[in-house]
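pinning this so it doesn't scroll away 📌
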Amino acid sequence: MSSVQKYAAVNAKVRALKARLLRDEDYKNMLAMGNEVEIVRYLKEKTAYNHVLKDIDPDNYNRQDFEFCLRKAILDDYEKIIHFLTGESKQVLKVLTMVRYEVEDLKLILRSISRGEDPGEITNRFLRKESFTGVNREELVKARTIEDFVERLKGTIYYRPLKTLTQEDMEKRQFHMEMNIDNAYFELLFKHIEKLDPEDRELMLMQVGTNVDLQNIHFIYRALTFYKLTGVEIFNYALPFGYYLKGKTLKRICFSGTPENFMAEMRSTSYWSLLERGVSDIFMERAMSQALYDNYQTVGSMNITQIIEYYHRIEFEMRDIISITEAVGYGMEYNDARKYLIRRI
């Protein structure tokens, strides 16, 4: 099947979805609101989010319900796009979207058990019950120990990498388990990327690999600054799927030892422009996200890039909406609130 045949219909659908994204003017209007209720009302009455928020009463605003509706709407959009795809392109998008949200659910359950809470109380925060990887969420929430949680994952991609961690020190175990869950997710994603047609495969290896690079940069910086992990630990838990930062380069950065040496190592990489003004935890994450936001811009190509661009733009828009509601809720000034956004306003 030619690229035109494969992507003509789905790209038309993606363009229609992109037309509903917020404008700069919408961002500015929301930043100028007096409270969260006004933002929710604006989104419901003035933007394409009206259908998403149809069951939300702004006057009885609940942040958790609001954010759940946003995430549910995004997954609904992904399902519409997946409907138009076939073959490995379909599988890649399923992993990129559905499995990624499954990973977030697994982490929620894991954290709940680690805190001694009842995981059954968070089932209303799950966006989907179906699983691409065989995970049974209804069984998982019955677990009361980490060991039981892991055993209920038997037969899935998560079982083997988590099984070896059940005897670890409690302080490190949750962190290591979450890293291994992420690793299993990316291993599955790249397994399907490798099966794509050559043009799509190279595009995805570069785009997702760049995403992995940026995640690793953020992780390594945090590991050196806050967690005080050893070079061996950092290297073992860094994602080995990067595009530019891999092999000896990645190992050298992981073993840099201090935040200062980390910065010195990063100077020779293509990502130095993101870090040269200095770093702080929240603004580094913002810089990483902005780099991804700027990287995903297409001009009508008949390949997988338009789909991936929409995936990132809608995800970043959701994060920005949540950031705006939080900033306004905390009474932040307009110019200060802008600093926490991914989109440049």
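📌 and the second one:
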Amino acid sequence: MIFLVFDFETTGLKPGRHEPIQVAALLLDDNMTELGAFDALMRPLQPELASPEALAVNGRSLADLAAEPHPREVLGRFAEFVAAAREPVVMVGHNVGFDLEFLRHAEATHELAFPRREAAVDTCDMARIHLESRGAIANSKLATVASYYGIEFRAHDALGDVRATAGLLDRFKAEAPALVDRAIEGTLLGGLVTDARVAQPDNPFVSSVASHFDRNGWLSARQIGALVRIAEQGVTTSILDGRRLAPGVSGS
């Protein structure tokens, strides 16, 4: 199994209106051995649509980016990098849905293909289940979780985000392997909903959250925390089995 941990920095939050300006990725095998790294800047084709707030967060200016390569060139090289794995990769990211939206738009716009498995691993969702629901961290932002584990983190730099996310995946594989397995299978949040239903089949809150998940495919941090607490009261809580925090690790 090959993991592709990846991240886009963008000119805003809306694919189609906003564009990627940096993409970075690591290819890792199942032992978390690095097989390759990718990091490249690209120029936006519609700079007039760029969000000044997004550029400020990324520490980039339109003038800085004007001389960078065309996105088709960069994303084409990125597609070749992914294809070099010679098998569909497991996509990994922190809030991975955001990056996948930009990736899908890039595929459609530039007629590219990134061979990948259907399910993706979201280290943010795993942090919410494994750490935030237990009160180990105040929130599951990448900087917060990286700080908890003492992982070096360069905020809002795609390669920095990727290396921090890879570090989280490594920790979760050690501390909560069942969560990682469920994420790879595409049943992480659905399994949590099922476990809560088993624990309290007549709970109206669980039914409401289950309906929300069926409609939208995502759960909020508050919903995840509540479902974990409910599921842990049940007899069958397989998605939570084997969760263990490393001794001596703290969020301070």
